């Protein structure tokens, strides 16, 4: 459970209309949000990631020209989160008041190393602008990561109630891709507490648990926040959904290796949860996507995930 069961998670996104820049850093404060605050080290790390996202968003709001220079000033390990936030703003520019090319410009040049995070960040646009799903980036295959971003934003701002509502709407592959993002947000809501995460997932319909665990794996591998011993408990907690957890870790490895910045927690997650190096796991994500890269269809994205699950499952 979250630290204060009688305190609902704060959904303050609606208080900041599209015209309100910059976004305040208190939006990243876990106590302000109503998230679990009983794990100070994990909380500090995850709050830093959230602040980096807000920093990227605000940098994009202030720099309508070349954004890569300002983003390069963000600490290397946090830069992916900043690109994610910048992508949210760029995606907004592409929608309001008319179609532009802000997201394409962000994906160019140095942004190519952060393409996973940029696509995820584009999905955040669906939350504050109340857009129907999906208005997706044009990049084949990776465009569907925007649905993951939409799910993350929905749960990060809406809390357990939003998570429960989304998980109850079992409507197929789009739903599954969104729920994976909800799982990633749950990692933040619970400050990476394994017991809290497992209990929250157990309360959801069975069909939602696999994509939720996929999101947990991605958050664990990319954001960190657990000790090696806690990391070892995750596959046990995931049970039959452990292959989904491991698939999420491979996605994290792919994103980190592509950016050329692989933190210790990503290396550790790959070693302990997948049994290989981060570079090997990232290589799997490339190999298993080779014949799918030009597809703009959601089934191709789901097949990519399935291939990685099968590859991971074969090792355990």
Strand and helix map with partners:
Blueprint: H1 30-33, H2 40-62, H3 68-72, H4 79-95, H5 102-107, H6 115-123, H7 145-168, H8 173-189, H9 194-202, H10 206-223, H11 228-238, H12 242-259, H13 264-274, H14 278-287, H15 298-313
InterPro entries: DUF1702 (IPR012964)
Organism: Polymorphospora rubra
Protein name: Enediyne biosynthesis protein
Brief rundown of the structure:
The chain has 316 residues and is mainly alpha-helical. The chain has 15 helices and no strands.
Q: Can you describe what's shown?
A:
There is one protein chain. With 316 residues, this protein is mostly helical. The chain has one domain (37-314). 63% of the residues lie in helices and 0% in strands. Helix 11 crosses helix 13 and helix 12 (242-259) packs across helix 15. The chain is globular and about 50 Å long. Residues 1-7 have low confidence and may be disordered. InterPro entries: DUF1702. Pfam families: DUF1702. This is Enediyne biosynthesis protein.
């Amino acid at each position: 459970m979250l630290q204060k069961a009688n305190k609902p998670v704060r959904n303050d996104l609606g208080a900041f209309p599209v015209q309100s820049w910059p976004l305040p850093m208190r939006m990243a404060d876990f106590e302000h949000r109503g998230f679990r605050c009983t794990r100070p080290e994990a909380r500090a790390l995850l709050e830093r990631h959230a602040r980096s996202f807000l920093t990227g968003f605000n940098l994009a709001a202030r720099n309508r020209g070349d954004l890569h220079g300002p983003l390069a000033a963000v600490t290397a390990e946090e830069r992916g989160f900043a690109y994610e936030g910048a992508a949210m703003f760029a995606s907004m520019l592409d929608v309001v008041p008319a179609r532009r090319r802000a997201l394409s410009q962000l994906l160019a040049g140095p942004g190519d190393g952060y393409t996973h995070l940029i696509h995820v960040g584009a999905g955040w646009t669906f939350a504050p602008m109340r857009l129907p799903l999906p208005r997706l980036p044009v990049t084949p295959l990776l465009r569907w990561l925007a649905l993951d971003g939409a799910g993350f934003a929905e749960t990060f701002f809406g809390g357990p109630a939003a998570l429960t509502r989304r998980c109850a709407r079992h409507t197929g592959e789009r739903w599954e891709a969104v729920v994976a993002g909800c799982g990633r947000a749950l990692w933040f809501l619970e400050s990476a507490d394994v017991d809290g995460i497992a209990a929250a997932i157990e309360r959801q319909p069975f069909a939602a648990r696999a994509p939720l665990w996929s999101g947990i794996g991605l958050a664990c591998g990319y954001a960190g926040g657990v000790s090696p011993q806690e990391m070892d408990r995750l596959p046990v907690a995931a049970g039959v959904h452990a292959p989904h957890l491991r698939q999420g870790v491979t996605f994290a490895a792919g994103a980190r290796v592509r950016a050329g910045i692989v933190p210790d927690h990503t290396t550790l997650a790959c070693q302990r949860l997948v049994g290989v190096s981060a570079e090997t796991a990232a290589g799997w994500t490339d190999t298993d996507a080779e014949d799918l890269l030009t597809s703009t269809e959601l089934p191709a994205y789901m097949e990519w995930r399935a291939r990685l699950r099968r590859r991971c499952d074969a090792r355990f």
